[in-house]
Task: structure prediction
Amino acid sequence: MDEQGPNAGNPYVSTAQVAEALGVGVTTVKRWVDQGILPAHKTPGGHRKILLSDVVRVVREGDFPRLDLSRLGLPPAVQEAPDPKSLSAAMLVALKRGDAEDLRSLLRGAHRSGLAIETLADAVVAPAMRRLGHEWADGRVDVWHEHRGTQLCAAALYEIRATLEGPADDTKPLAIGGGPEGDPYLLANLLAEMALMGLGWEVVNLGPNTPLLSFRAALAQTRPRLLWLSASSLVAPALFLEQYREMYQEASRMGTAVAVGGQALTEEVRAQMPYTTFGDGLTHLVAFAHSLRPGARRPRRGRPRGT
Ligand code: B12
Result:
Protein backbone atom coordinates (compact mmCIF):
# COMPACT_ATOMS: atom_id res chain seq x y z
CA MET A 1 0.00 0.00 0.00
CA ASP A 2 1.45 3.43 -0.91
CA GLU A 3 0.23 6.95 -1.68
CA GLN A 4 -0.96 5.74 -5.08
CA GLY A 5 -3.49 3.28 -3.71
CA PRO A 6 -3.90 -0.47 -3.09
CA ASN A 7 -3.19 -1.33 -6.73
CA ALA A 8 -2.81 0.22 -10.17
CA GLY A 9 -6.34 -0.86 -11.12
CA ASN A 10 -7.80 1.02 -8.20
CA PRO A 11 -5.79 4.17 -7.52
CA TYR A 12 -6.48 6.85 -4.94
CA VAL A 13 -7.93 10.13 -6.19
CA SER A 14 -8.13 13.44 -4.32
CA THR A 15 -11.29 15.24 -3.21
CA ALA A 16 -10.43 17.99 -5.73
CA GLN A 17 -10.19 15.51 -8.60
CA VAL A 18 -13.52 13.94 -7.59
CA ALA A 19 -15.18 17.34 -7.42
CA GLU A 20 -13.99 18.20 -10.92
CA ALA A 21 -15.07 14.87 -12.41
CA LEU A 22 -18.51 14.87 -10.78
CA GLY A 23 -19.11 18.53 -11.49
CA VAL A 24 -19.67 19.46 -7.82
CA GLY A 25 -17.76 21.63 -5.29
CA VAL A 26 -14.84 20.29 -3.16
CA THR A 27 -16.83 21.14 -0.02
CA THR A 28 -19.65 18.89 -1.28
CA VAL A 29 -17.20 16.01 -1.78
CA LYS A 30 -15.76 16.60 1.72
CA ARG A 31 -19.29 16.56 3.13
CA TRP A 32 -19.95 13.20 1.39
CA VAL A 33 -16.75 11.88 3.00
CA ASP A 34 -17.94 13.06 6.41
CA GLN A 35 -21.38 11.51 5.82
CA GLY A 36 -19.85 8.16 4.86
CA ILE A 37 -21.21 8.27 1.30
CA LEU A 38 -17.67 8.35 -0.06
CA PRO A 39 -15.32 6.42 2.23
CA ALA A 40 -11.90 8.11 2.55
CA HIS A 41 -8.69 6.30 3.47
CA LYS A 42 -5.76 7.68 5.43
CA THR A 43 -2.64 7.04 3.35
CA PRO A 44 0.68 6.20 5.09
CA GLY A 45 1.53 9.88 4.51
CA GLY A 46 -1.62 10.92 6.45
CA HIS A 47 -3.49 12.28 3.42
CA ARG A 48 -7.25 11.58 3.07
CA LYS A 49 -7.68 9.87 -0.31
CA ILE A 50 -10.66 8.28 -2.06
CA LEU A 51 -10.55 4.99 -3.96
CA LEU A 52 -11.51 5.21 -7.65
CA SER A 53 -13.78 2.17 -7.21
CA ASP A 54 -15.79 4.06 -4.55
CA VAL A 55 -16.21 7.05 -6.89
CA VAL A 56 -17.44 4.78 -9.70
CA ARG A 57 -19.89 3.15 -7.24
CA VAL A 58 -21.28 6.54 -6.13
CA VAL A 59 -21.59 7.66 -9.76
CA ARG A 60 -23.48 4.47 -10.53
CA GLU A 61 -25.90 5.13 -7.63
CA GLY A 62 -26.33 8.86 -8.22
CA ASP A 63 -27.14 11.18 -11.10
CA PHE A 64 -24.54 13.81 -12.06
CA PRO A 65 -25.53 16.14 -14.93
CA ARG A 66 -22.01 17.61 -15.22
CA LEU A 67 -20.16 14.26 -15.09
CA ASP A 68 -16.75 14.03 -16.79
CA LEU A 69 -14.98 10.89 -15.61
CA SER A 70 -12.19 11.26 -18.13
CA ARG A 71 -10.72 13.69 -15.54
CA LEU A 72 -10.14 10.61 -13.38
CA GLY A 73 -8.43 8.76 -16.22
CA LEU A 74 -11.48 6.61 -16.92
CA PRO A 75 -12.30 5.90 -20.55
CA PRO A 76 -15.19 8.02 -21.86
CA ALA A 77 -17.19 4.82 -22.40
CA VAL A 78 -18.14 5.05 -18.69
CA GLN A 79 -20.99 7.32 -19.59
CA GLU A 80 -23.03 4.85 -21.69
CA ALA A 81 -23.97 1.78 -19.69
CA PRO A 82 -23.37 -1.30 -21.88
CA ASP A 83 -26.37 -3.51 -22.75
CA PRO A 84 -26.20 -6.60 -20.49
CA LYS A 85 -28.14 -8.76 -22.98
CA SER A 86 -25.63 -8.33 -25.82
CA LEU A 87 -22.75 -8.68 -23.33
CA SER A 88 -24.22 -11.99 -22.12
CA ALA A 89 -24.61 -13.28 -25.68
CA ALA A 90 -21.00 -12.33 -26.47
CA MET A 91 -19.90 -13.99 -23.23
CA LEU A 92 -21.54 -17.29 -24.25
CA VAL A 93 -19.63 -17.25 -27.56
CA ALA A 94 -16.33 -16.61 -25.74
CA LEU A 95 -17.13 -19.37 -23.19
CA LYS A 96 -17.83 -21.97 -25.87
CA ARG A 97 -14.69 -21.00 -27.82
CA GLY A 98 -12.65 -20.92 -24.61
CA ASP A 99 -11.45 -17.43 -25.58
CA ALA A 100 -9.82 -16.14 -22.36
CA GLU A 101 -8.80 -12.75 -23.82
CA ASP A 102 -12.30 -12.01 -25.11
CA LEU A 103 -13.86 -13.01 -21.82
CA ARG A 104 -11.41 -10.90 -19.81
CA SER A 105 -11.86 -7.73 -21.88
CA LEU A 106 -15.64 -8.18 -22.06
CA LEU A 107 -16.08 -8.48 -18.28
CA ARG A 108 -13.43 -5.90 -17.38
CA GLY A 109 -14.84 -3.46 -19.97
CA ALA A 110 -18.36 -3.89 -18.61
CA HIS A 111 -17.24 -3.18 -15.04
CA ARG A 112 -15.05 -0.22 -15.99
CA SER A 113 -17.93 1.25 -17.91
CA GLY A 114 -20.05 1.38 -14.81
CA LEU A 115 -21.89 -1.94 -14.64
CA ALA A 116 -22.27 -2.91 -10.96
CA ILE A 117 -20.95 -6.34 -9.96
CA GLU A 118 -24.44 -7.51 -8.98
CA THR A 119 -25.76 -6.52 -12.43
CA LEU A 120 -22.81 -8.24 -14.10
CA ALA A 121 -23.71 -11.38 -12.11
CA ASP A 122 -27.49 -11.35 -12.61
CA ALA A 123 -27.76 -9.99 -16.16
CA VAL A 124 -24.51 -11.12 -17.85
CA VAL A 125 -22.72 -14.05 -16.17
CA ALA A 126 -25.69 -16.11 -14.85
CA PRO A 127 -27.68 -15.99 -18.13
CA ALA A 128 -24.59 -16.90 -20.22
CA MET A 129 -23.74 -19.81 -17.90
CA ARG A 130 -27.39 -20.88 -17.87
CA ARG A 131 -27.36 -21.11 -21.66
CA LEU A 132 -24.13 -23.06 -21.54
CA GLY A 133 -25.90 -25.42 -19.09
CA HIS A 134 -28.79 -25.84 -21.50
CA GLU A 135 -26.33 -26.72 -24.30
CA TRP A 136 -24.84 -29.35 -21.94
CA ALA A 137 -28.29 -30.72 -21.11
CA ASP A 138 -29.02 -30.92 -24.87
CA GLY A 139 -25.69 -32.69 -25.44
CA ARG A 140 -24.31 -29.88 -27.62
CA VAL A 141 -21.40 -29.25 -25.28
CA ASP A 142 -19.60 -31.52 -22.79
CA VAL A 143 -19.04 -31.11 -19.06
CA TRP A 144 -15.44 -30.05 -19.79
CA HIS A 145 -16.82 -26.96 -21.56
CA GLU A 146 -18.58 -26.06 -18.32
CA HIS A 147 -15.40 -26.65 -16.32
CA ARG A 148 -13.27 -24.62 -18.73
CA GLY A 149 -15.88 -21.86 -18.95
CA THR A 150 -16.08 -21.61 -15.18
CA GLN A 151 -12.28 -21.41 -14.81
CA LEU A 152 -11.89 -18.76 -17.53
CA CYS A 153 -14.75 -16.71 -16.10
CA ALA A 154 -13.28 -16.98 -12.58
CA ALA A 155 -9.86 -15.87 -13.86
CA ALA A 156 -11.38 -12.75 -15.44
CA LEU A 157 -13.42 -12.01 -12.31
CA TYR A 158 -10.37 -12.31 -10.00
CA GLU A 159 -8.72 -9.53 -12.02
CA ILE A 160 -11.72 -7.29 -11.39
CA ARG A 161 -11.80 -8.39 -7.74
CA ALA A 162 -8.23 -7.05 -7.35
CA THR A 163 -9.47 -3.56 -8.32
CA LEU A 164 -12.07 -3.68 -5.53
CA GLU A 165 -9.54 -4.33 -2.80
CA GLY A 166 -9.05 -1.47 -0.36
CA PRO A 167 -6.95 -1.16 2.79
CA ALA A 168 -8.13 -3.26 5.76
CA ASP A 169 -10.59 -1.15 7.70
CA ASP A 170 -12.25 -2.49 10.83
CA THR A 171 -14.95 0.17 10.66
CA LYS A 172 -16.38 -1.69 7.67
CA PRO A 173 -19.15 -4.22 8.43
CA LEU A 174 -18.10 -7.87 7.97
CA ALA A 175 -19.79 -10.45 5.76
CA ILE A 176 -18.80 -14.12 5.46
CA GLY A 177 -20.24 -16.71 3.10
CA GLY A 178 -19.85 -19.67 0.77
CA GLY A 179 -21.42 -22.89 -0.50
CA PRO A 180 -22.30 -26.08 1.45
CA GLU A 181 -20.47 -29.41 1.50
CA GLY A 182 -20.66 -31.35 -1.80
CA ASP A 183 -21.55 -28.22 -3.80
CA PRO A 184 -18.64 -27.37 -6.13
CA TYR A 185 -20.09 -24.17 -7.61
CA LEU A 186 -17.52 -21.38 -7.58
CA LEU A 187 -18.91 -18.39 -9.50
CA ALA A 188 -21.95 -17.39 -7.45
CA ASN A 189 -19.84 -17.16 -4.29
CA LEU A 190 -17.03 -15.24 -5.99
CA LEU A 191 -19.56 -12.75 -7.40
CA ALA A 192 -21.33 -12.44 -4.02
CA GLU A 193 -17.96 -11.64 -2.42
CA MET A 194 -17.15 -9.03 -5.09
CA ALA A 195 -20.61 -7.43 -4.95
CA LEU A 196 -20.26 -6.90 -1.18
CA MET A 197 -16.66 -5.61 -1.58
CA GLY A 198 -18.02 -3.14 -4.15
CA LEU A 199 -20.47 -1.97 -1.49
CA GLY A 200 -17.63 -1.24 0.92
CA TRP A 201 -17.94 -4.34 3.17
CA GLU A 202 -15.08 -6.39 4.61
CA VAL A 203 -15.72 -9.85 3.11
CA VAL A 204 -14.55 -13.40 3.86
CA ASN A 205 -15.44 -15.88 1.06
CA LEU A 206 -15.25 -19.44 2.43
CA GLY A 207 -15.79 -20.68 -1.14
CA PRO A 208 -17.79 -23.68 -2.40
CA ASN A 209 -17.96 -27.12 -0.71
CA THR A 210 -17.64 -25.81 2.89
CA PRO A 211 -19.12 -27.99 5.68
CA LEU A 212 -21.82 -26.15 7.64
CA LEU A 213 -19.97 -27.05 10.85
CA SER A 214 -17.06 -24.97 9.49
CA PHE A 215 -19.49 -22.14 8.72
CA ARG A 216 -20.47 -22.28 12.42
CA ALA A 217 -16.82 -22.16 13.53
CA ALA A 218 -16.17 -19.16 11.25
CA LEU A 219 -19.34 -17.51 12.59
CA ALA A 220 -18.20 -17.92 16.23
CA GLN A 221 -14.68 -16.62 15.50
CA THR A 222 -15.57 -13.67 13.25
CA ARG A 223 -19.09 -12.63 14.51
CA PRO A 224 -20.07 -11.09 11.13
CA ARG A 225 -22.94 -8.65 10.52
CA LEU A 226 -24.04 -10.79 7.55
CA LEU A 227 -23.69 -14.43 6.50
CA TRP A 228 -24.55 -15.53 2.94
CA LEU A 229 -25.12 -19.09 1.79
CA SER A 230 -25.12 -19.97 -1.92
CA ALA A 231 -26.47 -23.47 -2.64
CA SER A 232 -26.43 -24.62 -6.29
CA SER A 233 -26.55 -28.35 -5.58
CA LEU A 234 -27.53 -30.30 -2.45
CA VAL A 235 -26.05 -33.80 -2.36
CA ALA A 236 -27.77 -34.67 0.99
CA PRO A 237 -30.79 -32.35 1.43
CA ALA A 238 -32.03 -33.80 4.76
CA LEU A 239 -28.60 -33.55 6.43
CA PHE A 240 -28.12 -30.08 4.92
CA LEU A 241 -31.44 -28.86 6.39
CA GLU A 242 -30.67 -30.26 9.83
CA GLN A 243 -27.20 -28.67 10.00
CA TYR A 244 -28.40 -25.45 8.39
CA ARG A 245 -31.12 -24.94 11.03
CA GLU A 246 -28.53 -25.31 13.80
CA MET A 247 -26.26 -22.80 12.06
CA TYR A 248 -29.13 -20.35 11.59
CA GLN A 249 -30.06 -20.49 15.28
CA GLU A 250 -26.47 -19.69 16.24
CA ALA A 251 -26.33 -16.84 13.75
CA SER A 252 -29.53 -15.24 14.97
CA ARG A 253 -28.36 -15.59 18.62
CA MET A 254 -25.34 -13.48 17.57
CA GLY A 255 -27.44 -10.94 15.66
CA THR A 256 -25.96 -12.06 12.34
CA ALA A 257 -28.35 -11.68 9.39
CA VAL A 258 -28.50 -14.76 7.10
CA ALA A 259 -29.04 -14.28 3.35
CA VAL A 260 -29.60 -17.39 1.24
CA GLY A 261 -29.88 -18.10 -2.49
CA GLY A 262 -28.82 -20.41 -5.30
CA GLN A 263 -30.47 -22.78 -7.73
CA ALA A 264 -30.77 -25.67 -5.25
CA LEU A 265 -32.95 -23.61 -2.89
CA THR A 266 -36.22 -24.41 -4.56
CA GLU A 267 -39.48 -23.27 -2.96
CA GLU A 268 -39.88 -26.73 -1.48
CA VAL A 269 -36.45 -26.63 0.17
CA ARG A 270 -36.87 -23.03 1.35
CA ALA A 271 -40.18 -23.88 2.98
CA GLN A 272 -38.14 -25.97 5.44
CA MET A 273 -35.50 -23.29 6.12
CA PRO A 274 -35.47 -20.26 8.47
CA TYR A 275 -33.50 -17.31 7.03
CA THR A 276 -33.37 -13.50 7.25
CA THR A 277 -33.68 -13.02 3.49
CA PHE A 278 -33.72 -15.05 0.27
CA GLY A 279 -32.76 -13.66 -3.13
CA ASP A 280 -33.03 -14.89 -6.72
CA GLY A 281 -30.08 -12.74 -7.70
CA LEU A 282 -27.16 -10.83 -6.19
CA THR A 283 -29.00 -7.57 -6.72
CA HIS A 284 -31.21 -8.75 -3.86
CA LEU A 285 -28.17 -9.52 -1.70
CA VAL A 286 -26.73 -6.02 -2.32
CA ALA A 287 -30.06 -4.31 -1.59
CA PHE A 288 -30.35 -6.29 1.65
CA ALA A 289 -26.75 -5.55 2.68
CA HIS A 290 -27.38 -1.87 1.98
CA SER A 291 -30.38 -1.92 4.32
CA LEU A 292 -28.12 -3.30 7.10
CA ARG A 293 -25.96 -0.17 7.01
CA PRO A 294 -28.12 2.58 8.55
CA GLY A 295 -26.83 5.98 7.48
CA ALA A 296 -25.22 4.64 4.28
CA ARG A 297 -26.83 7.03 1.81
CA ARG A 298 -27.11 7.22 -1.96
CA PRO A 299 -26.40 10.63 -3.46
CA ARG A 300 -29.39 12.07 -5.36
CA ARG A 301 -29.22 14.43 -8.33
CA GLY A 302 -25.83 16.12 -8.10
CA ARG A 303 -25.88 16.12 -4.28
CA PRO A 304 -26.57 13.77 -1.35
CA ARG A 305 -29.93 13.34 0.41
CA GLY A 306 -30.99 16.02 2.98
CA THR A 307 -28.32 18.70 2.13
C1 B12 B 1 -20.84 -24.52 -14.36
C2 B12 B 1 -21.81 -25.65 -14.01
C3 B12 B 1 -21.32 -26.83 -13.45
C4 B12 B 1 -19.87 -27.00 -13.11
C5 B12 B 1 -19.49 -26.19 -11.83
C6 B12 B 1 -18.05 -25.70 -11.92
C7 B12 B 1 -17.69 -24.88 -10.69
N1 B12 B 1 -16.70 -25.32 -9.99
O1 B12 B 1 -18.30 -23.87 -10.39
C8 B12 B 1 -19.75 -28.52 -12.93
C9 B12 B 1 -19.24 -29.11 -14.23
C10 B12 B 1 -18.86 -28.99 -11.76
C11 B12 B 1 -21.19 -28.93 -12.74
C12 B12 B 1 -21.54 -30.16 -12.26
C13 B12 B 1 -22.83 -30.63 -12.23
N2 B12 B 1 -23.91 -30.02 -12.71
CO1 B12 B 1 -23.88 -28.16 -13.23
N3 B12 B 1 -24.04 -26.46 -13.99
C14 B12 B 1 -23.20 -25.52 -14.26
C15 B12 B 1 -23.88 -24.32 -14.94
C16 B12 B 1 -23.61 -24.42 -16.43
C17 B12 B 1 -23.51 -22.88 -14.47
C18 B12 B 1 -23.65 -22.64 -12.95
C19 B12 B 1 -23.01 -21.29 -12.61
O2 B12 B 1 -21.91 -21.22 -12.09
N4 B12 B 1 -23.73 -20.19 -12.96
C20 B12 B 1 -23.23 -18.84 -12.72
C21 B12 B 1 -23.78 -18.30 -11.39
C22 B12 B 1 -23.26 -16.91 -11.13
O3 B12 B 1 -25.20 -18.19 -11.54
P1 B12 B 1 -26.23 -18.94 -10.57
O4 B12 B 1 -25.63 -20.13 -9.97
O5 B12 B 1 -27.50 -19.03 -11.30
O6 B12 B 1 -26.40 -17.87 -9.35
C23 B12 B 1 -27.28 -16.79 -9.47
C24 B12 B 1 -28.54 -16.95 -8.63
O7 B12 B 1 -28.84 -18.27 -8.30
C25 B12 B 1 -28.29 -16.08 -7.42
N5 B12 B 1 -27.59 -16.65 -6.29
C26 B12 B 1 -26.71 -17.66 -6.23
N6 B12 B 1 -26.22 -17.80 -5.00
C27 B12 B 1 -26.83 -16.85 -4.23
C28 B12 B 1 -26.71 -16.53 -2.85
C29 B12 B 1 -27.48 -15.48 -2.34
C30 B12 B 1 -27.35 -15.13 -0.85
C31 B12 B 1 -28.37 -14.75 -3.17
C32 B12 B 1 -29.19 -13.62 -2.62
C33 B12 B 1 -28.49 -15.05 -4.55
C34 B12 B 1 -27.71 -16.11 -5.04
O8 B12 B 1 -27.50 -15.02 -7.96
C35 B12 B 1 -26.56 -15.56 -8.88
C36 B12 B 1 -26.26 -14.49 -9.91
O9 B12 B 1 -27.41 -14.11 -10.60
C37 B12 B 1 -25.40 -24.63 -14.58
C38 B12 B 1 -26.40 -24.03 -15.57
C39 B12 B 1 -27.25 -22.94 -14.91
N7 B12 B 1 -28.50 -22.97 -15.13
O10 B12 B 1 -26.80 -22.11 -14.20
C40 B12 B 1 -25.39 -26.16 -14.56
C41 B12 B 1 -26.44 -26.89 -13.65
C42 B12 B 1 -26.67 -26.13 -12.36
N8 B12 B 1 -25.79 -28.18 -13.38
C43 B12 B 1 -26.60 -29.17 -13.39
C44 B12 B 1 -26.27 -30.52 -13.10
C45 B12 B 1 -27.39 -31.56 -13.24
C46 B12 B 1 -24.98 -30.88 -12.72
C47 B12 B 1 -24.49 -32.30 -12.36
C48 B12 B 1 -25.41 -33.13 -11.47
C49 B12 B 1 -24.18 -32.99 -13.67
C50 B12 B 1 -23.63 -34.37 -13.51
N9 B12 B 1 -24.43 -35.29 -13.73
O11 B12 B 1 -22.51 -34.55 -13.14
C51 B12 B 1 -23.17 -32.00 -11.67
C52 B12 B 1 -23.40 -31.88 -10.12
C53 B12 B 1 -22.11 -31.60 -9.41
C54 B12 B 1 -22.29 -31.61 -7.92
N10 B12 B 1 -21.48 -32.21 -7.19
O12 B12 B 1 -23.18 -31.03 -7.42
C55 B12 B 1 -28.02 -28.72 -13.69
C56 B12 B 1 -28.85 -28.65 -12.37
C57 B12 B 1 -30.25 -29.15 -12.59
C58 B12 B 1 -30.92 -29.14 -11.25
N11 B12 B 1 -31.80 -28.26 -11.09
O13 B12 B 1 -30.58 -29.86 -10.35
C59 B12 B 1 -27.80 -27.33 -14.37
C60 B12 B 1 -28.96 -26.32 -14.14
C61 B12 B 1 -27.58 -27.59 -15.87
C62 B12 B 1 -28.87 -27.95 -16.61
N12 B12 B 1 -29.31 -27.07 -17.40
O14 B12 B 1 -29.39 -28.96 -16.40
N13 B12 B 1 -22.03 -27.97 -13.14
